[in-house]
Write a structure and sequence with these properties.
Structural class: alpha+beta
Number of strands: 21
Strand content: 15-25%
Length: 439
């Protein structure tokens, strides 16, 4: 049973910081180094100074990027840039954004959710995580004792019973916050303080599975922190809960984008023999690349990948090759090779096919290499994946269709775990919109 609670959030004070679009940011794991620098320059109180504090020469246990983040967090509260609400609230949010020329809207509710071990209750993951990232997030939580970014979870609500009673508030009360971020997404937020509404919403969500859409590392970090603090007299009272953003699976504003893969390095002899090895597992269609123009030909390849979504088509771009490749797995290959190892809901996924057949069987990557965030890079933007090859930064790019929401639900309900970075739910939920202090 999921236990949903209101809480006293810490929010930016517009009277002190000005435009809220200048101080919020996406989650830490989708921010590039160049974007991080831009966010820092944008405003002295931008949330990246907390979620992505930077190391300095001479850092040690008593002085490091985590302790500096904690010091900044305290200072911003003392200066009034961040203010904690007096009342316990649910935070109702609405995001309006453009996607492929059409405007969409997504509703969300930010609340506390009691932590549960995976497999023991109604909070269900679907992706593997990276070990190094969890340690980094643990140390930040340990120093700051706060959640700066909500975990993004989705639930099934075909009748709209959860958000239905909340929507009239959009028409009867002005939002507490209304601003546009740097990606042109409009954000509005309402504080819901009525205890009867808290009780009604919590009751409706109590028996509904919550599927983690984005934030697996942060959720596992919250579990690890809670467990590490067990029995400690200094354990924060809020360590048994984590901040979540909850949205309906049936919301038309919920989108999953593709997550393309790029290899930062690969032996040339392995890449030269790619087609020969791949032929054992895939049907291969080749497209010639004149003048090494991978960007133009890659766009043509991407259209073929999208058209072959039902056949689990995958695009392969390899630097130096005179062709790009559209590969579709041979019928029965995954069953023949992995029937004893991989359950059926996972075997059919594009991300599983890439991980097991391309990365491991053909390119020979080990489990440790799959857990190396510097070896495999990810992007939801096709042009960025192609540019990584043309620039020479990556020798290989793999273009994948987005994972279907129905696949996420089926895998999660079977209590199975997809490969890392299987989904990219869009738009991302902002860091810094609401902060949860664990103490």
């Amino acid at each position: 049973m999921a236990k949903i609670l209101p809480f006293r959030g810490v929010l930016y004070n517009p009277d002190k910081v000005g435009d809220l679009g200048d101080v919020v940011a996406p989650p830490y794991d989708v921010i590039s180094e160049r974007q991080r620098e831009a966010f820092e320059l944008q405003h002295p109180n931008n949330i990246v100074r907390l979620i992505l504090s930077q190391p300095r020469p001479g850092d040690g246990e008593s002085e490091n990027k985590y302790t500096r983040a904690a010091a900044r967090f305290r200072k911003w509260q003392e200066e009034g840039a961040l203010v904690r609400d007096q009342d316990r609230c649910f935070y109702l949010t609405v995001m309006d954004y453009e996607d492929r020329g059409a405007w969409r809207r997504r509703f969300g509710l930010i609340a506390l959710v009691k932590l549960e071990e995976f497999g023991s209750g109604s909070i269900i993951p679907h992706e593997k995580t990276f070990s190094a990232t969890k340690m980094d997030r643990f140390r930040l939580t340990e120093a700051c004792r706060s959640n700066f970014s909500p975990i993004f979870s989705v639930f099934s609500d075909p009748g709209g019973t959860v958000f239905g009673p909340l929507r009239p508030r959009l028409e009867t009360a002005p939002p507490d916050f209304d601003f546009t971020d740097k990606s042109a997404c409009r954000h509005r937020l309402w504080r819901i303080t009525a205890e009867e509404v808290h009780a009604e919403v919590a009751a409706k969500l109590a028996d509904v599975p919550l599927y983690i859409a984005d934030g697996h590392h942060r959720y596992e970090t919250a579990l690890n922190y809670r467990n590490a603090m067990a029995g400690d007299a200094n354990k924060p009272k809020g360590a048994d809960h984590v901040m979540m953003y909850l949205s309906s699976m049936q919301d038309p504003g919920l989108i999953i984008r593709p997550v393309h893969r790029m290899l930062s390095s690969a032996p040339s002899n392995v890449l030269d023999g790619f087609v020969q090895k791949a032929d054992a597992y895939f049907h291969i269609e080749t497209v010639e690349v004149p003048d090494q123009d991978y960007v133009r030909i890659g766009k043509i390849l991407w259209e073929k990948v999208k058209a072959g979504a039902d056949q689990r088509a995958i695009g392969v771009v390899i630097s130096g090759h005179t062709h790009v490749y559209l590969i579709t797995v041979r019928e029965g290959a995954m069953q023949r090779l992995f029937s004893q190892e991989i359950p059926a809901p996972l075997r059919k996924l594009d991300v599983t096919i890439v991980t097991k057949l391309v990365f491991q069987k053909i390119l020979g990557l080990s489990d440790d290499e799959l857990d190396d965030e510097k070896r495999i890079l990810y992007t939801s933007r096709t042009e960025k994946a192609l540019e990584a090859v043309t620039s020479g930064r990556c020798p290989v790019a793999l273009l994948l269709n987005p994972t279907r929401l129905s696949d996420v639900e089926a895998v999660s309900n079977a209590r199975l775990i997809m490969p890392r970075k299987s989904t990219y739910f869009f738009p991302k939920v902002l860091s810094g919109l609401v902060i949860n202090k664990l103490d």
